[in-house]
Amino acid sequence: MQCFKKENHYLKITGWFSVVDKEIVLGIIPARGGSRRVKKKNIKFLGGKPLIGWTIEEAKKASSLTHVLVSTDDKEIATISKAFGAQVPFMRPEDISEDVDTGLVLYHAVQWWEKYRREQADFIVCLQPTSPFRRAYDIDRCVEIAKATGADTVVSVCQVRQHPYWCFEMNTSQRLTSYMNTPLHGDNLVWQKLPLLLYPNGAVYVTKYATVMRGRIYGDKIYGYLMPKNRSIDLEEELDFFVASAMFETYGTEKTEWLQQSWKVS
């Protein structure tokens, strides 16, 4: 299925919104120009193409997405996004182009969609450009879970690398105390015997329309989709780009399953 087309949709106008014969799943790629830690991060080259290109290409392959938009305040990002086949129908206003809750960015995009397309989306899928190893089937699986469970939000997750049982707080004299008051002996020092804890890896967020219209990306009923370490890399710093570049050079662009997947053998 190609994105951005209304093929196989029966469309009729009834009042303000359009009614179609299938649910509208609106993919939104947030990509502001003013990244702080890595300049122009969203279009920095990785594996031979701008970073955002990896996300747009996988979004276009995802059969669950009926439309894909890029929300940006940057003309260069907009031009590159269009070259990769994404829609960039508006420029993001300044008040939500700084360090703000992503829920506000999604809310703005959905408001625009309703006003100018006269359609109401059923699900909004947030795809951050900083997750270049995410695949189309990761997107599709998250949408499937959202539809099957009635979740307000489905988020892609990965096992923690630094377990909170082993985290410390430091006072002004450099004395360490256990952050979770965990006894640091016995099974608590054996990784394989620790509770499996997960964190959002930033790759996929699927949120119901009603939740997004409250300016939120997380609703009350949250489900998870577990992704392996190799597809969960989130590029936020220069070191992350160095690691990701090495992965591409070593394993190619097919992104096959080449790292340990099970937390029990990590």
Q: Please identify which CATH superfamily of the largest domain we are dealing with.
A: Spore Coat Polysaccharide Biosynthesis Protein SpsA, Chain A
Give me the strand/helix succession. EEEEEHEHHEHEEEEHEH
Q: What is the annotated CATH architecture of the largest domain?
A: Alpha-Beta Complex
Largest sheet: 6 strands, mixed
Helix content: 25-40%
Q: Strand order, main sheet: write it out.
A: 6-3-7-11-8-12
CATH topology heading of the largest domain? Spore Coat Polysaccharide Biosynthesis Protein SpsA, Chain A
**Averaging pLDDT over every residue, what do you get?**
86
CATH class category of the largest domain: Alpha Beta
Which regions contain 5 or more consecutive residues with pLDDT less than 50?
1-20, 262-266
- The general outline is globular
| Number of structural domains | 2
Strand tally, please? 12
Strand content: 15-25%
Characterise this structure.
The protein has helices at residues 51-61, 75-83, 102-117, 136-149, 209-212, 238-251, and strands at residues 12-14, 17-19, 25-30, 45-46, 49-50, 67-71, 123-126, 153-159, 168-170, 176-178, 198-208, 222-226. By secondary structure, the protein is an alpha/beta fold. It folds into two domains: 12-156 and 198-265, Spore Coat Polysaccharide Biosynthesis Protein SpsA, Chain A (Alpha-Beta Complex); 161-196, no CATH class. Strand 1 and strand 2 (17-19) form a beta hairpin. The chain starts with 11 loop residues before the first strand and ends in a 15-residue tail after the last helix.
